Amino acid sequence: TFSLLSPGKMSRDRALRKQQQLNNLVAAVEKLAKPGDVIVDFCSGGGHVGIVIAHMLPLCQVVLIENKELSLMRAKDRSDELGLNNISFIQANLDYFNGTFNIGVALHACGVATDMVIEHCIKAQAAFVISPCCYGFIQNTVKFKYPRSHQFKEILSYKEHMILCRFADQTAVHLPPERKLIGKQCMGLVDLDRAWAAEGCNYSVQVTSMEPESCSPKNNMLVGTPV
Hints:
- Helices cover 43% and strands 20% of the residues.
- It is of the alpha/beta class.
- The protein is globular.
- The chain has a domain at 12-135 and 198-226: 3-Layer(aba) Sandwich (Rossmann fold), CATH 3.40.50.
- The mean pLDDT is 93.
- Keywords: Cytoplasm.
- InterPro entries: Methyltranfer_dom, SAM-dependent_MTases_sf.
């Protein structure tokens, strides 16, 4: 799928890992999508995810949302090169998006952005496919309080949850294996909290790992569907 797109200035190794990440997300979206669905790629960047989805699912409408004008222009150029006519672009902070859609997708939505995307999807009663990132940036905001789920709130204080999030970021390739394993387990717990919070809003949620796990240190994937 990724071969459709020019990887730009990426090394071959990084381009391969990006391709593997995309394959995981796109495969999950393909399982959920029906003809006529509107699929929103949140924090779309240069459009790699949304463009591949638009190409693979010509009977669906794909909307890319990105607040950086340059990234959106690059995505539009890529889409024009491929002659896609089922794709549209919105330059906005994802907080301002207020449309109806069927599936929300986000690759490496940083920190609280993952929870914002989940919230948008729940509000629209849409399915979601999200790969979180930057767990260390998760913190209480005006809109979100952590932990998210009542199950976690019963056993973890906010401060303890923050420590969990800091450890969840300890997954970099150069770290010792035992440290990375703890990081991966903490990532799983942070995302389980998110999954249980969504399940409290009548969703069924799976937390899985991308394959192969080496495609990214941040290789968790949350797939949620309204029940």
